[in-house]
Write a structure and sequence with these properties.
2 copies of one chain form a homodimer. Chain A contains 12 helices and no strands. The first copy, chain A, starts with a helix and ends with a helix. The first copy, chain A, is flat. In chain A, helix 1 (about 5-25) crosses helix 2, helix 1 packs across helix 4 and helix 5 (about 75-90) runs parallel beside helix 8 (about 130-150). By secondary structure, the first copy, chain A, is an all-alpha fold. The interface between A and B is large, with 66 and 66 residues. The first copy, chain A, binds a DNA duplex through helix 3.
Chain lengths: ~220, ~220
DNA sequence: GAATGCCCCTAACGGTGTTAGGGTGTCAAG
DNA sequence: CTTGACACCCTAACACCGTTAGGGGCATTC
């Protein structure tokens, strides 16, 4: 296959799943493409630019399946679905959240997604300003949650992951931290879909409450 | 000064502000301590463990100034203050959010903070389960927001930061993305305290709304 | 047929985290 | 007082990293 910057990024993204972010080297990517490392620099400026391109791909993966809300579907469901798509895109690649976090993606598909967010919220009765300040909160929550979740389940620690639930639960001193011990089930279950959905609901409820508060004056 | 793992972490955290996470090398830290790099390995297992220790210090920095809510202060204010403390701790070090993100900190001060969160929310009328699922959402939002903010203002790009607000605003096609263009001020102003406070308020409002929804049955 | 420019190569540079193995000083036990 | 153990630091070196310099083949264009 002909090599260009996008092919490199796609290859890197595929290799990422095998070796993780720390194991992703230029030499490895080049080898997979049947080429030597310096060749990559003909197509891309440096590794940071490659990481940006990878982040863009992940982001686009989430944004491109985004459609205007169908009739009858609420803005709450639509917004939550957008967050779920983004989360799924990150989860579908090892260290996906770390790759995405802190990369301001600039791509047409993403602009479209932003525009769609604004329009959907405004059509639902939000002011444009509320929409513009509100939906990034959903985004930031989603990124924050997923980066933590992916870190806890990371394979970086090998077999003896110090964040294994049973290990953490055993560490809590029930005398000094009774509520923590009592709620350890809920606390440790925060990773995964259930925990994500709970927080996501909170943010969406917050959006609705903020609008109602304004409407009441 | 006598060298031990905590002194190493403090030194590393101080150097971090000068050189950034990518510039933080074992040799540099050792030099600052008047010692050679391999010596560090007598005190710590590897660099990852050092980064964990640094993250713990930042986290503790935010948690140790945490006190039970004074009489007359609402749970909303208390919870928001806790988020602000955490954010300030991250912002007070270059790349602080990146260091903290994805490091499950295990330290007494943090356990105390968790317990205090649970107690405060429960005393305010939340069920323990609501508290245990709710406050991580605040935490995740805070981390997500701060990591993005710090990435955008990062010096990693040198003088030609592609995320400079005026550069981004100019990039938007007002014909195809009218709402985005119109709201660009609000969108780009999401970084900084104003944007953070807006989202933080949303999450807190969401918590309240979730409780009220339960109470109504 | 010459020249241009794309695309890949080899070689190498300066740096990284980390390990191996050896020294020196302190301090307790015999 | 001697001996040994142990804490703590060292030098040397390994394997690997991102990246640059410079050169060569090969197609397309004048």
């Amino acid at each position: 296959m002909k090599i260009n910057s996008e092919v490199i990024a796609r290859t890197a993204l595929r290799l990422l799943d095998d070796v993780g972010l720390d194991g992703l080297t230029m030499r490895l990517i080049a080898q997979d493409l049947g080429v030597r490392a310096p060749t990559l620099y003909w197509h891309i400026k440096n590794k940071q630019e490659l990481l940006d391109a990878m982040a863009t791909l992940v982001y686009v993966e989430a944004a491109e399946r985004l459609e205007p809300p169908r009739d009858g579907s609420s803005w709450e469901d639509w917004l939550a679905d957008w967050a779920r798509h983004l989360r799924q895109a990150m989860l579908s690649h090892r260290d996906g959240a770390r790759v995405l976090a802190g990369t301001y993606v600039n791509h047409e598909t993403v602009h479209r997604a932003v525009e769609l967010n604004l329009r959907t919220l405004r059509d639902a009765g939000f002011t444009l300003s509320e929409a513009a300040r509100g939906f990034p909160a959903v985004l930031h929550y989603t990124i924050g949650h997923t980066i933590e979740e992916q870190a806890h389940t990371s394979a970086a620690y090998g077999d003896d992951n110090p964040y294994a639930p049973e290990r953490l639960a055993a560490m809590i001193d029930a005398e000094r931290f009774p509520l923590t011990a009592q709620a350890s089930g809920d606390l440790l279950g925060m990773d995964g879909d259930v925990g994500f959905e709970y927080g996501l609901r909170l943010v969406v409820l917050g959006l609705r409450a903020a609008r109602e508060e304004r409407e009441r004056g």
